[in-house]
Amino acid sequence: MDLDQLLEISNQCIHSEPPVCVASCPVHMDVIAFVSEVEKGNFSGAYKIMESKIPLSRLIGKICERPCEKTCVRSHAGGSIRIGELEKSVITFGYSAPKKPLLLPKNKGNIAIIGGGLSGCVAAIELDKKGYKVTIFEKSNRLGGRLWEYVSNGLEACDIEEELGMIEQKGIEVHYGIEVLEKTLPAYFERYDAIYLGTRTWSKSYVVDPHSFQSENPALFIGGYLQNPNAMTIESASSGKRAAVSIDRYITKASMTASREREGVFETKLHCTTDRVASVESVPLSASTYREDEAAAEASRCLKCQCDACIKACVHMQRFNITPDRYIRSICHNERIVLGNRTANTMINSCTECGLCKAVCPVGIGMADIIHATRESMVKRNKMPLSAHDFALKDMAFSQSDYFSLVRKQPSKEASKDLFYYPMIAFSAYARGLYKGSGKTGYLFYPGCQLSSTHTDYIGSIYKHLVGVIKEKDAMNDVGLFLGCCGAPADWAGRGDLMHDNVEKIRQTWEEEGRPTFILACSSCASTFAKYLPMIQTVSLWEIFDTYGLPEVDIKKGKRELCIHDACATRHDGKIHESIRNIVKTLGYSVQELEYSKEKTKCCGYGGLVACANPEQAEDFAADRIRESDPDVLVYCAMCKDMLVKGNKRAYHILDVIYANETDQSSPQKMPTLSDRQNNRKRLKRQLLKEIWNEEEEGSMDPTYDFTLHISDEITALMEKRFILLGDVEKVVANSLSRQERFFNPKSSDYLARLRIQNVTYWVRYEEAGRDITVKDAYMHRMEVVEG
Amino acid sequence: MNDQIDKTTEWVCDKCRQALVPQKVKVRYLDGNFEVDLLKCPTCHMVFISDELAMGKMLEVEKGLEDK
Ligand code: SF4
Ligand code: SF4
Ligand code: SF4
Ligand SMILES: [Zn+2]
Q1: What's the confidence (pLDDT) of residue A699?
Q2: Which residue of A387, A741, A780 is in closest CB contact with B54?
Q3: Cα(B12)–Cα(A744) distance, integer angstroms
Q4: Which of A65, A155, A225, A782 could form a disulfide with A150 if both were Cys (CB 3.0 to 4.6 A apart)?
Q5: How many domains does chain B have?
């Protein structure tokens, strides 16, 4: 992985980008933090925030021209936040006199400030703070310049005196009644390391850099009125502050320009809108300054503009309280660790790779590809936690084994001749389809492993339907069947090696069968094929249903409303979205669209193998989706149904609706267990072979046991949670019986047995009564215990 | 892991009908190799591990090693 390139992406994330009000404030007052304190009624806290950015804040805060308000996003929804009025109110209720300044040694250099107006005073204060010995030369008998124009027009003379009085208290030397002129300037350069010129007029005009305020004489810096006669007070103050930064850089021989692009007013990349914001009018002033409660009310109108589109949409980012910018940085850190704990592993394995973040991000940053690349890199470096995906990968191997894998051409005309009799041939489209058998496989129905596991009994009917409708329109092309797993689990687990082998096998079958079009019923298969097998033409089963017609079942009119949960793997497949909606409407349902649907759909929690690696995170996803949906949910991915039903939401697979199999509304829905799923796949293969191809399996591959297991619902739930299969429990029990390898508890009369199967040791506690074995506990560990 | 390990138990080895005794046992996972005191049958050496130990401390150590 190219980590630098990754960091580049993180820099594009605008989560930390300031709101437009801050960007248009010449001194970048942290408006959001400020209004948040006001909202809480913490005026002294709010004042501290003002004070940290606004020079002479007690004065400037009252007279600032408020460029921030002009740009405020709220202006289109009830009027800009009255930031200036809030500042006034905060000064009134939150100002406290600063503590006596510590007189630190001022030994960084000697600076002369010529002109003790606003910008000069600000420059002096800032340089003093930085550790310079500062001397102000003021031609009149007082400091402050233009500030005095505001007396009785926003400011009180006594406040100005008090504030400016503090300048001398800090130890800054002030010489009044001294007018420095161009011709006397050289003498000052001899005595001072740098000079700031903040007078109103000057006899010579210098060329001044508008960013650094440095003149062509590198030791001379010019700001305030002289540099920009049209400057607002806040700009003038800002120029003094920025010139002080430049003087410090000049003296310490630092770069004059490095990372200063965003000083002063700048353009933020954050563009917030009020499309979804209700208009709220600004709070009127009941007196010359907001009362505390009025200020708090006005502050609460602030939208706290920030880009959080992804974090709002994704419970994964919420759970880990992270945004892409920090996420990417912690991935890079995780990747670079040589010794020590890779603390981001769990987070990296908790992203569903659903792609929603990219779909909602205004700058198009997406975590899915990054997470995928990271997992691949972890696998390659042998740093992927083994337990995270072990179960899913074993289950995938099961699907690829002879227990489930199967490729068959459409039964030949010759083999099917028993079906060609009246009335069969008249009423069964399937029989007619077989009759038209051409021997050329134009289509391969590929139901996928998950649908076969959980919606087993539909597969045969669908296959027959496909043969019927497709052959009717397209006599040339037969429909074959291919049972297997597309490899999505390997892809999610970052197992490029397994993925490659699997894809190669599928491609070979496709070649051998004469390059048929795959009919896909699973959205994950669809995205895997698109990504790894672009040469294979595919079509979704739903599109076939939509164009060739649905199986004939009772269509009950006037049915209920459903909301559609689009599968995240189909995010960019508008054709599937459309077909699904057409089918559902044809069947008489009305559709409620969710806020997050189609290209912005959310993941059910199964994606990315999160249900395996971090079940709690997966539950968050399901719960989040369920919260959003009021009516029963319609899904078209077997895993989506599984996740939602497990979260106690009534959900139907589109096949349930097509085959009118919505279970009794009053009874709870139940999904098959992990063991059921494997058994279902075995059973499906056996059944289809028998029913459609008239083939009996020679000898069962399954071991038979001479005991009967009894497992309560509670223990079944525990086994599910711990990813323990019934078959594993059987093996442990069988081994313990045949070899007497078990512990006995004389008190409870229970037995406890263990068996290592591949890389896991399984333990089963049971009660034995003749051939009846009642399981009381099942657990496991991956650590190997060396016996002997 | 030692703090969580039972020193005595009601369980006995079914085959050897022996009470279990605590003994140093080697356990390993990924790059980790440890010796811990576990209860085992003195005759056939079968090692006893409880649900609490397997799903508690052992799981924690496994996860820790996986993140190394
Ligand atoms: S009122 Fe002025 S100082 Fe305050 S935030 Fe707005 S521009 Fe900045
Ligand atoms: S709504 Fe608040 S955060 Fe947004 S621009 Fe206005 S003051 Fe700034
Ligand atoms: S779970 Fe989906 S939305 Fe969240 S970070 Fe991963 S890809 Fe993005
Ligand atoms: Zn023994």
Answers
A1: 65
A2: A780
A3: 5
A4: A155
A5: 1
Query: Structural domain tally of chain A?
Result: 5
**Is pLDDT at A427 greater than 90 in this prediction?**
no
Instruction: Please state whether beta strands A760-769 and A743-745 pair in parallel, antiparallel, or not at all (unpaired).
Output: unpaired
Host domain of residue A379: 309-384
Residue nearest to atom 4 of ligand 3 (CA): A314
pLDDT tens readout for residues A113-132 = 999 999 999 999 999 999 99
Q: Which residues of A touch B57 (CB under 8 A)?
A: none
Measure the CA dihedral A64/A68/A69/A72, to 10°: -170
Q: Is B42 on the interface with A (CB under 8 A)?
A: no
CATH code of the domain covering residue A731: 3.30.2310
Residue A297, both tokens = 């009310």
Q: What is the pTM of this model?
A: 0.83
CATH code (residue A631): 3.40.50
Of A343, A748, A779, the CB nearest to B54: A779
Residues A503 and A419 in one domain: yes
On whether residue A345 sits in a domain, the answer given is yes
Of the residues A251, A270, A291, the one at which a domain ends: A251
Q: Domain with B7 in it: what CATH number?
A: 3.10.20
Ligand 1 centroid to residue A51 C-alpha, Å: 11
pLDDT for A571 beyond 60: yes
d(CA A18, ligand 2 centre) in Å? 10
Give the helix/strand (H/E) hosting A3.
Answer: helix A3-12
Q: What are the tens digits of pLDDT across the range A682-691?
A: 999 999 999 9
Q: Are residues A228 and A350 in the same domain?
A: no
Residue with CA closest to ligand 1 atom 1:
A66
Paired tokens of A308: 């959080």
Tell me how crowded residue A5 is: count the other CB atoms within 10 A of its CB: 8
The answer to whether B16 faces chain A, any CB pair under 8 Å, is no
Residue A541 shares a structural domain with residue A623: no
Q: Examine residue A285 and state whether it is found in any structural domain, yes or no.
A: no
Judge: A345–B38 Cβ closer than 8 Å, yes or no. Answer: no
Q: Are residues A581 and A640 in the same domain?
A: yes
| Nearest atom in ligand 2 to A302's CA | 2
Q: Do B11 and A744 touch (CB under 8 A)?
A: yes
Domain shared by A634 and A608, yes or no: yes
Say if residues A218 and A250 touch (Cβ distance below 8 Å).
Answer: yes
Range of the domain at B26: 1-68
CB atoms within 10 A of CB A175: 13
State the DSSP H helix or E strand holding residue A10, giving kind and residue range, or none if neither: helix A3-12
| Among A384, A405, A425, residue at a domain's last position | A384
Contact A162/A139 with Cβ under 8 angstroms? Answer: no
A136 lines ligand 1 (CB under 6 A): no
